[in-house]
């Protein structure tokens, strides 16, 4: 399973932009030895988030499953809010950010990275 978006994924992400803030859902399945690498990535990504106005809304391990498919493989969940899809795209295109993405990639066996919009309730 892929753990990083492709260039085509990012083009579609921007083309389907409804405008406004975006919350990125990250479901993470770690490799057996991947937690240390992901921890380092988490420590180093902060300045890049701040640069584009992003913020971590929630980060943590998943525990008791109540209603999920039997083959649910996820270890952790991360929610990150960005002021726009463009802000997210600027961050991932930053050459300095790209130097640390390998830490994330090598940490994960599988991932979901999905954009969410606020309902305005």
Automatic annotation (TrEMBL):
It comes from the Bacteria. The lineage of its organism: Bacteria, Bacillati, Actinomycetota, Actinomycetes, Propionibacteriales. It comes from Aeromicrobium senzhongii. This is DUF1330 domain-containing protein. Gene3D superfamilies: 3.30.70.100. InterPro entries: Dimeric_a/b-barrel, DUF1330. Residues 36-112 form the DUF1330 domain.
